[in-house]
Amino acid sequence: MSTQRKTDFASEVLSEDVVHDFLAENPDFFERHGELLGTLRLPHGSSGAVSLVERQVSVLRQKDLKHERKLRDLLGAARANDVLSGKIHDLTLRLLAAGDLQQTLTTLEESLRANFDADQSILVFFGAPEDFDSIDIGRFFLAIARDNESLKPFDTFLQGSGPRCGQIRDVQRDFLFGKETDEIGSVALVPLGGSAEFGFIAIGSADANRFHPGMSIDFLSRLGELITGALQRF
Predict the structure, then answer these.
(1) Same domain flag for 130 and 51
(2) Total structural domains in the chain?
(3) pTM of the shown model
(4) Are residues 224 and 126 located together in one domain of the fold?
(5) Is the CA virtual torsion 192, 196, 198, 203 positive or negative?
(6) Residue ranges making up the domain that contains 108
(7) Half-sphere exposure (Cβ direction) of 53: Cα atoms closer than 13 Å
């Protein structure tokens, strides 16, 4: 009679949580009681039951695959960063070789288009337009007074502290790339100097996912610093 009561009491105490906590605190339990592994069976889909060891091996294999995929992603990101660093280095050398503002702007426009996959780009420079009448670089360069009413749609960006990525309003797109341009899916806005002291550069892509709010902006910040330094030479 007492044995039955003891068994019932044990059944009540040894809940699933108790067993779970015990095994979590004693991960070597089945090493000390290996004979149990052969008797434990676990359901495994339509293939019937498998031993605990087989199930554990399967779980470990799945973890290995996840780790392998994560490693591949990290290696892919590292290779992409290496390529990007190489392009930044090449642009730096080309900008250093530029002898005047015209050559600097030409080099920058060509590099953005050829090496950084810019479908459209424009450098908005804060200054008196008449001071840059000799600059001939098409729509890529726009000199404009900072208090010009056309810049009102960019107030939030210009009052910020770093690059902005994503879709832009139609009025912003029309100002930057022209009313006839409608294939811009996403844009990166990069300030030049602290608080966009010298202006900003806009890089447009037909791909709506090319520039998005969640992307890293380290590359864009460095690009902005590089362009600012190049412009200050002149």
Answers:
(1) no
(2) 2
(3) 0.69
(4) yes
(5) positive
(6) 98-232
(7) 9
Torsion angles phi and psi, residue 28, rounded to 5: -95, 15
**Amino acid letter for position 18:** V
Cα→Cα distances 135→41, 75, 101, 139, Å: 79, 43, 8, 11
The tens-digit pLDDT sequence of the chain (234 residues) is 444 444 444 445 578 888 888 888 887 787 777 667 656 665 655 455 555 666 667 777 777 788 888 888 777 667 877 888 888 999 999 999 999 999 999 999 999 998 888 999 999 999 999 999 999 888 999 999 999 999 999 999 999 889 999 999 999 999 999 988 878 999 999 999 988 999 999 999 999 999 999 888 889 999 999 999 999 988
- Could you tell me what percentage of the chain is helix, strand and coil, using 3-state DSSP and rounding each to the nearest 5? 60, 15, 30
**Token pair listed for 75:** 């290696």
Q: In terms of domains, do 134 and 197 share one?
A: yes
User: Do 47 and 161 belong to one domain?
Assistant: no
